[in-house]
């Protein structure tokens, strides 16, 4: 039995949650106006314990740099000022979404602090509040319960990790994203399989977009998937960007857990019962003092040491594939990497890959007292780090069960270890924001937008084509489409420009990054009769290269009247010849009239 649950995070299209800053982020390549640096420590919760996830992050010992953008940030994001009142518009949108999911709103909103010490919040925690409970979503395979809808602040956007001037790893974040309101919607783990998961995720997304009050575009919605298998563990997979990858992601995780269980039972068989790993860790640098291995000699030259770990009776299992392109060794390596090392070398890899010689290998096995069915892991790093890395790999190898983990979704549908699954010790009350009673007046004042069903019916009526209506409903361009139609664009032309023309232009390398303004200008000119339909792809292609739309459109002014008659005559009234030469500049109806008039 596989249990699958979904957690959707969607940004709202209104200002930030606890200050008056707008939710518009600075340009991706914009330079921050100010950079501040912090070192964060885990905060002890009321229970006086640090949970495993917080501890795992803390072990990395990092400093953080935050880029401040004056147009999107104030003292609240910098944690120099307490949070302001919770944004009433954000709350109203969250209440509306809760209504669409048939949920019961809470009587009083309590803002809580959720500890995050990966540095993605300057305060060291994320503020979150439960808005509603007990909802449901109809699906083709029965209703799915929606136990919770919460409102919370978006984290700061990560830029990257580099060594600072003191040689310590420092992670850089952008504060323009911090504080944007998010709703979190959770389902119960009753999703049947990968295809059902895709359906549920799609439906929740479309329901939210139908209201017209949520943010659109890349990164504005994120799906986290919880998967547990019968004898495996609960694993939370974070950051699936592409909905279509969800079925593969779910399948891969089920396979991974099944493979891990197989490895565990094989180990038990090899040990004849309980698996006991002595896990000897020893320095073996001396063996490699004149090595031909570029990786090892480079590591030694820069002051590193080579350490080895013996994994008893593990031969052949470290190299066992558990996800496409990922081995059991990757699991051990991912744990080792939490100490900052780049990875491990293990005995199920081809030694030629690292140019490790046969004599080095046999000396290594002898020095470490290995038996033929033992495996080893090697790491090259500064002494203490190398020891810590192999201790982590050993800790993972000793588990003997599928660990509960938070894993990152990779674009290829596989996952990588991030940290242990967070425990319950992470929340405590936010004392700077008073509780907010949810009154009957507030609920009444919620402006209810369209439901998904209403939106679907309206699109179908507007477009007169079920396939295009469905495409538009799922499109991230839905908001822009509606804006264009409101501005007077012909619905079918607007839809096919967004869903077909822009897509094929992008495929040929002519991508329009911000199609909003470009298309508004384009359709305004088209309505004024400045060019014909057939010219639209060419004008957009020029606009993609940076030419303003009005300038691009000038090259496609319509040829009509006497001029058209002249051209028709020159080309012998041959419709094929005329169209192949002037297709983008002629109104086919007028040409038709001219050709018919001739007869
Ligand atoms: Zn602010």
Task: Write a structural description.
The chain has about 600 residues and is an alpha+beta fold. It is about 35% helix and about 20% strand. The protein has 19 helices and 23 strands. The strands form five sheets. Strands 1, 4, 6, 7, 8, 11, 12, 13, 20, 21 and 22 form an eleven-stranded mixed beta sheet that branches. A four-stranded mixed beta sheet has the order 2-3-10-9, with no helix packed on it. Strand 7 and strand 8 form a beta hairpin. Helix 3 (about 195-210) packs antiparallel against helix 4, helix 6 packs across helix 8 (about 385-400) and helix 17 crosses helix 19 (about 590-599). It starts with a strand and ends with a helix. Residues about 45-50 have low confidence and may be disordered. Zinc ion binds near residues 73, 77 and 179.
Summarize this, please?
The chain is of the alpha+beta class and 599 residues long. Strands 1, 4, 6, 7, 8, 11, 12, 13, 20, 21 and 22 form an 11-stranded mixed beta sheet that branches. Strands 2-3-10-9 form a 4-stranded mixed beta sheet, with no helix packed on it. Strands 14-15-19-18 form a 4-stranded antiparallel beta sheet, sandwiched between helices.
């Amino acid at each position: 039995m596989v249990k699958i649950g979904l957690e959707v995070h969607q940004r709202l299209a209104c200002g930030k949650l606890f200050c008056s800053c707008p939710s518009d982020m600075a340009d991706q390549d914009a330079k921050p106006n100010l950079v501040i640096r912090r070192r964060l420590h885990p905060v002890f919760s009321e229970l006086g314990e640090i949970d495993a996830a917080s501890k795992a992050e803390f072990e990395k010992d990092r400093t953080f740099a935050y880029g401040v953008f004056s147009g999107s940030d104030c003292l609240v994001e910098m944690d120099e000022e307490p949070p302001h009142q919770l944004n009433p518009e954000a709350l109203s949108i969250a209440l509306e979404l809760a209504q669409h999911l048939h949920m019961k709103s809470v009587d009083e909103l309590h803002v809580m602090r959720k500890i995050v010490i990966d540095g993605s919040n300057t305060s060291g925690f994320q503020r979150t509040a439960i808005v509603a409970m007990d909802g449901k979503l109809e699906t083709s395979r029965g209703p799915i319960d929606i136990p919770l809808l919460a409102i919370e602040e978006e984290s700061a956007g990560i830029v990257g990790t580099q060594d600072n001037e003191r040689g310590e790893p420092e992670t850089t974040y952008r504060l323009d994203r911090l504080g944007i309101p998010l709703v979190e919607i959770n389902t119960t783990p009753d999703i049947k399989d990968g295809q059902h998961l895709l359906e549920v995720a799609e439906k929740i997304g479309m329901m939210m977009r139908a209201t017209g009050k949520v943010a659109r575009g890349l990164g504005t919605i994120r799906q986290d998937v919880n998967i547990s298998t019968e004898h495996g563990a609960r694993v939370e997979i974070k950051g699936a960007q592409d909905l279509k990858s969800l079925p593969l992601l779910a399948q891969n995780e089920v396979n991974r857990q099944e493979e891990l269980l197989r490895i565990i039972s094989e180990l038990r068989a090899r040990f004849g019962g309980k698996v006991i790993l002595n896990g000897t860790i020893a320095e073996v640098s001396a063996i490699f003092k004149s090595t031909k291995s570029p990786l090892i000699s480079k590591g030694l030259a820069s002051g590193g040491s080579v350490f080895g770990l013996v994994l008893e009776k593990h031969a052949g299992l470290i190299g066992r594939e558990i996800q496409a392109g990922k081995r059991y060794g990757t699991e051990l390596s991912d744990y080792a990497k939490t100490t900052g090392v780049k990875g491990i070398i293990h005995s199920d890899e081809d030694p030629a890959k690292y140019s490790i010689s046969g004599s080095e290998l046999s000396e290594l096995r002898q020095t470490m007292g290995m038996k033929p069915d033992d495996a080893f892991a090697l790491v090259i790093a500064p002494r203490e780090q190398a020891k810590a890395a192999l201790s982590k790999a050993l800790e993972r190898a000793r588990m003997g069960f599928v660990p509960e983990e938070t894993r990152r979704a990779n674009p290829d549908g596989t996952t990588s270890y991030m940290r242990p699954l967070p425990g319950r010790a992470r929340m405590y009350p936010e004392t700077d924001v008073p509780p907010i009673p949810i009154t009957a007046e507030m609920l009444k004042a919620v402006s209810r937008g369209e439901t998904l069903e209403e939106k679907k019916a309206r699109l179908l009526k507007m477009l007169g084509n079920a396939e295009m209506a469905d495409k538009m409903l799922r499109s991230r361009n839905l908001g822009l489409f509606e804006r264009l139609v409101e501005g007077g664009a012909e619905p079918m032309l607007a839809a096919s420009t967004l869903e077909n023309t822009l897509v094929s232009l992008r495929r040929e390398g002519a991508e329009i990054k911000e199609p909003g303004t470009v298309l508004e200008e384009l359709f305004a000119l088209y309505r004024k009769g400045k060019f014909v339909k057939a010219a639209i792809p060419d004008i957009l292609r020029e606009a993609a290269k940076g030419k303003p739309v009005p300038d691009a459109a000038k090259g496609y002014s319509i040829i009509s009247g006497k001029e058209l008659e002249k051209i028709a005559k020159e080309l012998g009234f041959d419709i094929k010849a005329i169209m192949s030469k002037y297709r983008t500049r002629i109104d086919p109806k007028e040409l038709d009239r001219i050709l018919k008039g001739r007869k």
